[in-house]
Amino acid sequence: MQATEKESNAFKGAQFSNHARQRAGQRGVRMTELYLVIAEGDRVTPVGSNCVALAISRERRKELVAEGYPPSVVDRAARLALVESPDGEIITVLHPNGHRGRRYRTPFGTCRAAVMNRHSRAA
Fold first, then answer.
1. Most buried in the list 9, 56, 71, 79, measured by CB within 10 Å?
2. In a domain, 108, yes or no
3. Contact 116, 44 (CB under 8 A)
4. Taking Cα atoms as reference points, which of 94, 113, 90, 82 lies closest to residue 13?
């Protein structure tokens, strides 16, 4: 799947730490899934030290499938969380499962506009 222009711009603005690159590789996360979470993620959860976890909400998942994204890619991306530092660097990539993953799933709110504004300022 080719990345759209909006996804490419959002992804170019994102910086990954060495830890995030290593974890993405270890956890089998594909670049298309990272594109979706960074460009289309609308769920923001504070996780401490002014960092936030970015993820895709259930409603946004339905919208993405309706927009024509492959359902398999959307489902895989929706099971991810990216932890972003206050300066916009992606610190880690994870699958928030089980009791310990609740920290990354408990929604602070769905604020797509705030996420998009933060990424547009970084570019």
1. 56
2. yes
3. no
4. 90
In whole angstroms, what is the distance from residue 20 CA to residue 92 CA?
Answer: 4
CB atoms within 10 A of CB 2: 6
What is this structure's pTM?
A: 0.73
Query: Which residue range forms the structural domain that includes residue 88?
Result: 5-115
Q: What is the pLDDT of residues 64-104, one digit of tens each?
A: 999 999 999 999 999 999 999 999 899 999 999 888 777 78
What is the domain count for the chain? 1
- Mutual orientation of helices 31-40 and 71-78 as an angle, nearest 10°? 70
Backbone Cα Rg of the chain = 13
Helix ranges (DSSP H) in the chain: 5-13, 18-26, 31-40, 58-67, 71-78, 98-105, 112-122
Is residue 120 one of the residues assigned to a domain?
no
